Amino acid sequence: MPATILVGTQWGDEGKGKITDLISDRYSYVVRYQGGNNAGHTVVTDKYKLALHLIPSGIVYPTITPVIGNGCVIDPKVLLDEINLLEGEGIPCERLRISGNAHVIMPYHRDLDGANERRLGNNLIGTTRRGIGPAYQDKMSRMGLRMQDMLDHGIFRDKVEAALREKNDILSKVYGLPTYTVDQICDEYFAYADRLAPMICDTTPLLHDADAAGEQILFEGAQATMLDIDFGTYPFVTSSNCTAGGAITGSGVSMRSIDHILGVMKAYVTRVGSGPFPTEAPEGDPAGDRLCEIGHEYGVTTGRRRRCGWFDAVVARYAVQVNGLTDIAMTKLDVLSEFDTIKVCVAYDCDGVRYDRMPQNQTAMHHAKPVYEELPGWREDITGCRSYEELPKLARDYVDRIEALAGAPISIIAVGPSREQTIVRGW
């Protein structure tokens, strides 16, 4: 049976949680394969509205085994807070499986993340200051701690002691911040380990066995293509591979198991944090404010107001190519219902040079100006539409134009926040 990768195609916040929730009931496993609690996704049902950060959305289905893969970094306190939230809603979490190879976010990672952002001043990256970047730095420098280390008190204590010899010097001598003791950290993290121990395992053979048994697996990405450490708008990116390839390295499942790659894109574009954003509504343009207010564009994790702008087909084509998308899920089409005219960026003008593809030169990307097409708005409420044919013709024209520009079929269209407010055509 096929496995599916679900990825964001813009700068995040495309509504991946809704789409995961919509399709996940056909899967036996839902796997989060990268990122940490810097990501957030909202699941809306007729019973509750849940903001999740680490646990895959499939947790709401009792038949699904949710998995946090080795490509993730985990703050155990945040994870346990999320477990408590879910259990308080009557959703059991003992099915959750956590890779022993996933790296642990430590208190000094959070401190260093915030201190580094303050040091950058006006050039800050715009991180969530949750310690994600420093945790990945330690992973790559081979001095990180992993979830399995918490299960062996001796190993964990030795690794914390080694780490603090460097981290305490940086905290105190570079940033003037308080330091940590080994006992202070171990006492806190051993308490986390006591509760999480039954969930920590080697998730790679777990997924291999599921694949061999013909069970369907959904890989749920966090953040999005334009925030990928290699393919995004570097350096204003996250610290992991958010593109489809990250599902392979972040889980250990073979590429041969993947059958579908579903990209989620908003009918317009938003971004949180710093970095280039060619279609962002300029200051004084009311379109940005209207998109923000109608679409409720505030970060799940930070509460920050998102930067808003028109749909960017250059980004969409790029995402289709680097991810190998087989299908697209378009979200928040209903937000555009209040506009008389809708703009679509079909190319960039970079200092007089037209780019139909993503500029590889960082300077060109920072100077990119959108080349727009204008399409008529439909000015009708579409939140009750449940088939493609029920959409107004001008709304269908918009979807068809985006599909042609992106180069992949739009198989799912969300016309509202709830699970039921969705049109499925060909998925």
Write up what this structure looks like.
With 427 residues, the protein is of the alpha/beta class. The chain has three domains: 3-98 and 200-261, Adenylosuccinate Synthetase, subunit A, domain 1 (Adenylosuccinate Synthetase, Chain A, domain 1, 3-Layer(aba) Sandwich); 103-196, Adenylosuccinate Synthetase, subunit A, domain 2; 266-424, Alpha-Beta Complex (Adenylosuccinate Synthetase, Chain A, domain 3). The chain has helices at 16-23, 76-88, 107-120, 132-140, 153-174, 182-196, 203-212, 245-249, 286-295, 313-323, 362-366, 393-406, and strands spanning 3-8, 29-32, 41-44, 49-52, 65-68, 73-74, 97-99, 103-104, 200-201, 217-220, 258-266, 269-271, 307-309, 311-312, 327-331, 341-350, 353-355, 368-376, 410-414, 422-424. The chain has a ten-stranded mixed sheet with strand order 9-7-5-2-10-1-11-15-19-20, with helices on both faces. Strands 14, 16, 17 and 18 form a four-stranded mixed sheet that branches. The chain has a two-stranded antiparallel ribbon with strand order 3-4. Strand 3 (41-44) and strand 4 form a beta hairpin. The two termini are 15 Å apart. The mean pLDDT is 93.
